[in-house]
Amino acid sequence: MTTPTWDEPGGPLTNDEFRAATDAIIANIEHVIEGKGATVRLALAVMLAEGHLLIEDVPGVGKTMLAKALARSIDCSVRRIQFTPDLLPSDVTGVSVYNQETRDFEFKPGAVFANLVVGDEINRASPKTQSALLECMEERQVTVDGTTYELQAPFMVIATQNPIEMEGTYPLPEAQRDRFTARIAMGYPDPRAELAMLNSHGAVDPLNALRAVADASLVRRLIATVREVHAAEAVQQYAIALVNATREAPEIRLGASPRSTLQLLRTAKAIAALEGRDYVLPDDLQALAVPVMAHRIIPTADAQLNRRTTDTIISEIVHRLPLPHDRARNPYDTRANGDGRAQYESRGR
Amino acid sequence: MAAAASLLAAAPLSAIFETWTWLLQCILTVGLVAGAAVLTRTLRFPTWAQAAGMVLVLLLTLTWIFPSHEELLGLIPTPATFNHFGELFSEAGNDTRAYGVPVPNRDGLLFIAALGIGAVAIVVDMLTVVARRPALAGLPMLAIYSVPVAVYIDSVPVIPFIVASIGYLWLLVADNVDRVRRFGRRFTGDGRDVDVWEPSPLAAAGRRLAVIGVAAAVVLPLIVPGLNTGLLNQLTQVGTGGGGTGGGPGNGRIDLSATLSGFLNTTETIPYVKVTTDETDPFYLRFGVADALNKDGFKARTPTGRPISNGLTSPQDNPKTDGGEYQRYHADVEITNDFTQSLAPIYSSTVTMDGLDGSWAYDQSSQVIFSNRTNVRGKKYSFDYVRAKYTPDELRQAEQLPSDDPNIVQFTTVPADPTVETLVQKLVKNKDTPYDKVMALYKYFSKENGFKYSLTAAGPNGDVSAIDAFLKDKSGYCQQYAASLAWMAREAGIPARVAFGFTKGDTRDGKAYVLTNRNAHAWTEVYLDGFGWIPFDATPAASVAGSSRSAWAPDTDQVETPSASSSATAAPGAASSANASTAPGAGKDVDAGGSVTGDAATGSGFSTTAVLVTALIALLIALLLVPALRRVLVRKRRHEATVPTVAAASAGPAPPGSLDVVVTTEAVQAREDAHAAWDELVDTMLDYRVQVDPTETPRHTAQRLIHEADLQNSSAAEAAVLLGTAEERARYARQPMRGAALTTALAQVRKGIAATSTRRTRLTAVLLPPSVMLRWRLAIGEASTTGMTGISRLRDVLIRFSPRRLLANRAR
Fold it and tell me: What sequence ranges are listed for the domain ChlI/MoxR AAA lid (chain A) (predicted)?
């Protein structure tokens, strides 16, 4: 069996196949998570964008449920790590143990050796343990005792965490946060969804009824399809402009990284593909700006004192920043216009 | 304050009116309007209500001052009031033509003045107080200034204009002081890096601007040729003015032509004669006759005759000239010191003479009073004269004189000139009576035939070449007209001569007419058997100040009452003279049997002022329409861009019949089409005041448009979504959308937005499209920024060479 590498994800799917596959996954997850369509799509988009997902919210809103539902919908290896304060890095990455039969040290793979790693309550472990994920999340490999082990493709970490204000939490280090493609919040369900939840969850655990609707190879092909999505230069410029704006904004101490630019665009491609488009819109970037960038930036002390959350800062930037465009500048509307006008004006003359 | 400024601005009008009644009324009007403004503002009415309030008060005031006596409670206007206003308007229209400056207090004129100044007061108030644009208020004020300038033929007094400009400056200063006060205290700039002699950089800039402006205002007229009043022209023309006025007291033979052109070409206005008469509408005052015609043109003979102490003869006493209806009048004449002719200005057919001594004589034939020893300078005299009234029918009875009649012998000699001969033969063909012949010639000099009045057209002499030139160029002044008509009449075998004198005059001093060099005039006199010498003035009435017309020779350029004049003059016996004089004069205050009819008043209906005003208004309207036009053009071009350019190369299956469908073969083309359609949509949104947000994506914009313009559930919503999708695909997708009916979609969206927006918004969108205005404003802003950058760069360069830089450094 050849292990598929990240560079050869498989052939892209056609539009219809893609639609069918993603719709099946989404429908599957929505059996469990009621009334959170947008969140579910975003989670799936992060997966298709080869990113990692951080689900942050207060306890009891279904963070773990979402992570597990996503994992179960795909027929691939799933490992779950419950992050506790006494968890050690080696529990995550794996450890070399002495095998008496072979008289040699033998590598016991840790929890990360799976297609999907669900890290529950990630901020309850100490930063030391959290940092064990750094290498595997970015480089998709684990180095233990000088030996580097490749991880499988696809590889995705879905972590849940409580807000930082909760007791017994260690904040994630910046480097760790930056590795998560998107941070999403579940939010409380609306009354109707909550009622439906009471009915479905009352008798049996719906998770148990969940069957896998996709496998790893299909996910790889989905990923390949997403990579094919077209991002116009204007859109790329807009992504850069957005990220740059966080670096220049006065109320932000640490702006978003170039990695975030990359992940922003990738996720946007995934979202576009999920919507059946083969091109990225600035709308996608706008919708993703908060989930992708808000957890990476550090506001200044002043902004914090003013109780401005990173979410509001980012969404303000989005509202403030004019769209770039590949046409020449229009005096009053940066979006509409220029080049095109010049062209047809010259045609008119 | 705005009101006071408007009043000051009205100062130039003082030059027009004789009395100050208008001022009282205007103060009243402006005061009440200002009061209304203050009241509405105190009550915090919206802007439009303020304007409406002021207009209402103006209306009430006018109703009060100029009542038609049919108002409710004396204030509330009724339809009758507006009829009355209409009458006042037409009356004013007549008055402006009938009276010269300064005018007496006519109700119509007063009404116009009060209305105009009241309206200006409203506009000034709105501009300064509401719009805070006091500089713009100069425009309506300028309109007031231009009135006297247009009315006066020559220069206007300076003082009132200074007063008016002080009013304007006061307005500007007050506003700026107010504006600065809003920031707090004013600083002089001490303590800043500014030289001591420059109190503040702003003030210095202001001074520089002012100096440049004044310099430009002075220099430009000097440079631009064609402005006769220009300083340079005056300098170069000094001396030609009074050149011809002399002639010498001892020599009765005067070059009247030279005198006349000298008079008319003098740049200043010199009063010569003051004449008072009990005739309501006198004809021209006359002092000389040129009746000897040779190659050099008409020349005056040396007058001969008996001293006036021997008495004068009346044409009534002579059976050969007693035709027509005579009436006797009395006139007093006062000659100023500037007039030194040896010929005394009198009305024709003077019968008695008082106040001139025995050195004066009367020439029976030419009917002039002359002296060989002295001149009329400073003389005062009075005389009685008879005025004959003729009707065309009467004159038509005049027979052709027998060829041995002394008048024929003396006054029909003409130098041979083939041009004139053929022309006259052509004109008098089929005309039987001498009167009809003369009328045929007379009418030839109409505007219709291309004749136009020009003081600078030809040389002063009416010699053969000049007459030829005049008939060819059809451009000249009274002398050419008079001489040509006389010449041609002679050619037709009718005795004719050129008379010189003054027109009725348009300036009045009490009851007296003040005649100046501007009123100097020449006209033709024709001898008709049984009637004597009858004046015909072929010069266009509109071009001669104080000109008048007679029933037998109406204005040929008059177009308004063609039936009346043509029936009275052309068609023999078709209409009586009563018809001729009363029909066009109905409703006007002409004396009942007036032979100097209302035709004269209506004759100059298309005065230059009226034409100018009309042109200005038309220009204004055209200017207002420019943005709308521009918008329409832009839309058209975009629609052209979205309309299919059916690809010739690849015979794509074009959907038949649907013109709106984009059937471009190239993606580029489709992309451009979508962009064009989108630009048009954005402009449409701007026009209808739907916010345009540069941070929004096309999709968002379309959604918001649907939401804000309330387009849900209509085809417009679908159209908007279609446009948004087309644009986003054009921008971001690999392949743009093709085959979409963008033009139709645009039309639908436009209709949809228009249906849900207010009438005001719709009107603005059509007349003053905000998209166009905004683009222009931004373009202007950008241009000025570029300009300022250039200037400041230049300034930096210049400062590098300025020694003051070193001084400043040393001071530090």
Answer: 245-317
